[in-house]
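User: Could you walk me through two proteins back to back? I'd like the raw sequence and the structure tokens for each, with a short line separating them so I can tell where one ends and the next begins.

Assistant: Of course. Protein one, sequence then structure:
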Amino acid sequence: MDDEKKARQRESWPTFRGPTLAEIEAISRLRHLPGSAIRSAADAGLLRVGYYERAACYILTEGTFAQARRLDGLPLPIKDGVSKAKNLPGAVGAFIGAGLLDESSNVLLVEGCIGLLEALGSIALADAQGWTVIAATSASSRFHRAPDLPARLKGRHVRIVPDADEAGLEAAATWLAAMEHAGAFPDAIELPPGCKDLGPIVSNSLHYQTFLSSLFQ
């Protein structure tokens, strides 16, 4: 019954479309990310745009999952407050980025939908050939909720970049064990002091050039 309810909710989602060049540039400025990273997500169908909560938004989406953020950077209303990101009603999904899993032998596994764009930005800034990315939609994401994904990661080197908080580190330990069980070759890398995620590293890449190089070694 809950699955049926979520399916009905998804039917009410707004129409999504691919971003224009101007919208790609706007997201690039807003997130301090290389435009090529935004284009990569858009080309894979993971980044769309549309109107939601009466505002122009960019949508990170794959399959039955979608998360909206306003193009002007302002927050969206949620229960008991506001938030920069909001999952659309009926959204279901533990990981996004399967559409980016080409023949690359190395995969970054990051936390958070916006982490997908930040990881793509890191790859672009480091010109890291042979790397791609998947992102957990939250620290609570587990691979039993994405049963087809482990088989696609089998035989690949999966580098986990956990958020620097208790939930992120706990998730990383769980993902590491799951990847080993799936036949992948996982490891994890610690973020520099003062960085909770890849956001500040990408936005200040010259300062973190040494870390960016080590991230893809």
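----
Protein two, same layout:
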Amino acid sequence: MPRQLALVFLLGAMSATAQVKLSIDQLRSFLRSSVELRHDDKKVAEYLKRVTLTQQLDSGTRLEMLGLGLGPKTAEVLAVLEEKSKTLPPPPAQPAKPAAVAGPPPPGQEVQTQLLLHVREYARNYTKRLPDFICTQVTRRYVDPTGLEFWQREDVVTTKLTYFEQKEDYKVVLVNSRPVDIPYDRLGGATSAGEFGSMLKEIFEDETQAQFAWSRWATLRGRRNHVIEYSVAQPRSKWRISYQRTLDITPAYHGLIYVDRDTGMVTRVTLEAVNIPPSFPIQEARTVLDYDFVKIGDAEFLLPMKSEMRMREGRLLVKNEVEFRMYRKFGAEAVITFDTPEPLPEERTKEQPPAP
């Protein structure tokens, strides 16, 4: 299936009277973002009037927050929140930041050149090495009408994903754990496709003419990785972004490719659209796709584990967290039960600082 993102419509946006629970860290992040984005003081104060703190706001922390450059109306509401939170437990102490550790030196130019040649060949042949399989795709979809990353979960979509003869097929099975019969392309909301090979392959195709450069070292899931940065010009792009099924663009994009130093396999790909026309409703779009080893039958394959897609339309933010679970050989469908599993732990996709 061609690689694409689509935004059709969103349901259940935050109501004007909805109560919001925030920790002190979340409150601090909200206020910092409101200052950076120059939100109106009155609107920030009105939002804070609907906030219930989960931790104590002491006077020292409140004064620190005022130092961010908050307006007078916001300052008044903070004083009220301090008074209301006196009986709550204090937030946990912030751990001291570890000293910065210098990573190892970059590889030599010859090694970098050989690395790019290897990854190009790997990407071109990746899908040819994959077996036919089925798996469960779980998509947790979130929205944030404030634009400040205070996410509300919209729904959880469970899909049967079939990979047969190097093509993907999606069948929606459950929405919020209830059986449904909805075609994937008619699901509504934000959706994505193309994670199984086309995303990686198109970056390295000759006609794409992507520009590559070695960027840095990284540690992902405990393993040392090369990080390669790349960019694709708009005339060579095949990444389609669709809005309401009536407007489409194919933007330029750039991103990073993580390559395991020891196995030479790609473990993460990121994409971010650039130079989106101002007239197009979606102004930001980016994706992160993580791979991990999965056993199918008697063999192990490096397959998509989790992806995160984000888009912005005006102030409205949209986020999809997609997990690929319960891989099975194609034809073994009878043994799959399409329940919705618990989310994968964040540690599986968190990057660690490189060891020296």
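The domain at 103-352 is CATH 2.50.20 (outer membrane lipoprotein receptor (LolB), chain A).

Let me know if you want the two compared in more detail.
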